[in-house]
Structure formats: C-alpha cells, structure tokens
Amino acid sequence: LQMAWANVRRNRQKTAMVVLSISLSMIMLNVTVTVVKGLDMDKYLSSFAVTDFCVADQTVTNAFSAANEVEGVQAQDRAYLEQAAGIEAIGSVYMHESIQYFTGEKAKKLEEIFERNKEQLFKEEREYYATNVYEDHCLPMHIYGVDQLPFEKMNIAEGNADWEKFQTGNYAIVSAFYEDGKEPYYREGEKITVDFPDGTQKEYEVMAIGDIAYALGPEHGHGMDIYVTLPSEEFLRKIPYCKGALKLAFDVREDALEQAQDYVETYCEKSDNTLDFSSKLTYRASFEEMRRMYLMVGGAMSFVLALIGVLNFVNLTVTSIKERQNELAILQSVGMTGKQLKNMLIGEGVYKILLTFGFVMTAGMALGYGILVMLTNEMWMFTYHFVIWPILVSVPVFVVIAVAVPVICYQGDSKKTLVSRLREVN
Question: How many CA atoms lie within 13 A of 285 on its CB side?
C-alpha cells in the first residue's frame, strides 16, 4: 500500500484529472437527486391549484388572447358543473378592468410609493407609470367580485377577512404594490372610492390588504396596479353587464376527483368548447412530468460525466501499467510476488477513488451547493433537503471499477513468463 500511494503521488497531474472527472459525475448526480427530492408538490399546487377544479373561458387560459371578462362562465355552465360528483364547495370570480384615481393625500402617497420602488419596474414601464402617477394620479385597476370559496382562498397580508361583514357590500379588500402586502396604497379601516363603468362612484371601507389567489385571477398583471375585491352580488349590481364569471372554482371529495374530472372534461370538450379547465389532477401530472424531466436530464449528464471519468481512469491505468512494464518485471525479479504486485495496482486505483470521495465531501459539497443555488434560485416550489446518499451509493461502484481494471490489465501480462517479460522490455 505504501508503494501504491507513492505511485499515485508520482503523477499528480493525471491523478488530479481522474479525481476531478469522477468527482463531477458524483456531484452532478447528488445535485440532480437533491433538486428532484426538493420539488415540493404542495407548494406547486398552492399556487396553481388552490381549488380542485377551475373552469374559465379559453381566452383567459390562452396567454396570447385578451380575457373575455363579459361572457366567461355563464349561469347555465355553472348549473351543469354544480352536478359534478362529490362537490363540496363552489364559487365564481368576476373581473372588470378599470382605472383607480387618487386624490389629495392618497395622490401624494402614490407618488412616494412610486419613487421608492420605481427601480423594480422596467425602464419603459417607469416612463409609462410616471405619467400615470404624476400627471393623471391613477393606476390600472382590476375590480373583482368573489363568492365565498374564492374569498376564503384569498392571500391576505394585513387585516381580518370576515365573510359575514364582507358580503354586506360595504367593504373591500385592496392590494398593495407588492404581493406580500408591502407598500400598501390604503390601510385597513381607511376609505376607498371606486369608479364604476357607468360613471357612478361608491366608497368602501378597506377590510384588509390582499389579493385573490393567482390561480383564480386572470393570471396576468401590470407593472404597477391596484386590485379591489368586492362580494359578487355587489360587483354585479355595479357592473351588471358582466354576467359571465372570469373563473368558476370548486372543490370535490378526494375520492371523487377522477369522476369529477371526467365529467368536467366531457362538458368542456363536447357541450361548451369555448371553456377550458384545470384541476388538481392535471397539475399533479404536470408536476410529476417536470420531476421526470429534471431526473432524466440530470441523470443523463451524470452518466456522461461518469463515463468520461471511468474512461479517463481506465486509460490512465492501462497506460501506466504499459509504461511501467520494465519496472513491474524488475520488482517481481527481485522477489515481489504476483499477489503483491496485483494488490499494489489495486491499491493505486482504490486510493484514487478515496481521493475522489474526499474531494467530493469537502470542496465538492460546496461546489454542488453553488450549482444547486443557481439551478433553484427562481424555483419557488423548491424546498432544500440535505442529500448525500447518491455519493455514498456511487463510491462502491467506482471502487469495484478501480479494482477490476488493474486486475484485468495485470492478468493479461501475468500470462507471460517473467523471463519473457524482461526480454521484451530490454
């Protein structure tokens, strides 16, 4: 073993190349498994599937179309879909795009919010909203009308969302500049005057700062805007021409998910093909597909890197043995047995794998974490879990290769007599 260690240290550059190439495959495999393990289905569904089913006009689900906020999901559509198996709760979301004007102190506050946060906007957006804020004192606005189910799914950042009080029609939930409620335009308890399409206005008390769930909205936004949410009855009184819902959401029993999916799918494809739907089942399937994609791509990269590492190891081992034929023959001629020689060659290979393992568990872990951060920085559905088992599993595989390659090479030479080997070299 001492001789094997000395031989490994003799050609440090080639040893480092083998260690690095095998290390990269182990690091990449570990990163791949960490990413796949960290993809959190609950986080994914909490954004895209806050309810079991969501039905909308195809213009809403198509990113390249303007949302049809007038027609949408009609009363007859809801009446039919309410018959789906296992229905537990159902509710509609209505929407109208408008303009919200700010006056007095609120106009001044709007300017202050814009000044503090304008760097968050693209350059073109800053120029556009500067005109809105400083000259017109207004922002693009979505007015929402919600039933109880989407109301209960709202993202509330500040205040207490009380359904009983809310459905009186005297309260509104208002958004802030940021989704998490930071930089609110209005505070809880203040009054907001909303302008409606017919030219009328109404003042509402701000019940809370928040917004409807992204999956239940139009799935688009503006660089800087404000959303005002009202109860459905109040919304339809003030905007009576908007008869169709932007989206219809409903929950069903877990054991009825598949049956309800068939029911909804049949209706959207055959009875009213202007509608589209999403469900918890479809998002679960897309999530699993995403996990398989990451596993397949990462696994393929790990395999390629491992193959390169193994080929480097084989090439180095074979070349080293061929170049040292004279040396190995002389060692045997002065008393080293074939078993000792074979063990020395095996030791060289095993030492390289142990060096690889040491590198991976130190600098390699830091490198792997850096790669992981780059890959998952924008993956909001990712939850980090420390993973090490892929490294521990791959080490014995490489050890077997490290043992097998020199043994095979040595057996080829050992078939010749020592005298003939010495003659060939000399």
Answer: 6
State how far the alpha carbon of 290 is from the alpha carbons of 28, 35, 258, 371, 402, in Å. Answer: 18, 11, 21, 19, 35
Average pLDDT, the chain: 87
pLDDT digits (tens, 9 = 90+) for 185-232: 999 999 999 988 888 899 999 999 999 998 898 887 788 999 999 999
Alpha carbon of 57 to those of 74, 99, 109, 235: distances in Å? 10, 24, 37, 19
Structure tokens at 120: 């968050």
Q: Distance between CA atoms of 159 and 65, rounded to whole angstroms?
A: 35
| Distance in angstroms (rounded) separating the CA atoms of residues 30 and 393 | 10
Q: DSSP state, 332?
A: H
The angle at the Cα of 390, spanning 389 to 396, to the nearest 5 degrees, equals 95
3-state class (DSSP) for residue 25: helix
Instruction: Classify 94 as helix, strand or coil.
Output: strand
Q: Please state, in angstroms and rounded to a whole number, the distance separating the CA atoms of residues 257 and 302.
A: 38
**What token pair was written down for 160?**
């207490």
